Task: structure prediction
Amino acid sequence: MRTRVARWGHSLAVRIPKPLAEATGLRPGEEVILEVGGEGLVLRPLRLDDLLEAITEANRHEEVDWGPATGREA
Result:
């Protein structure tokens, strides 16, 4: 399937045809990852693994003590 690159403000944009969006499960507003691949750009949905990889000691918060268990949650 072919499409064209268009200008969008100071950036470039590519319109994803409906059959490709449906085949990949992409929806409007969904966050995606863009990467440079072997021969060009790779676009893929943002996954939980991507978010977990971003956790570091610098951005990880300390455990919070909410007090003793009061129900059956523990």
Remarks:
- The radius of gyration is 20 Å.
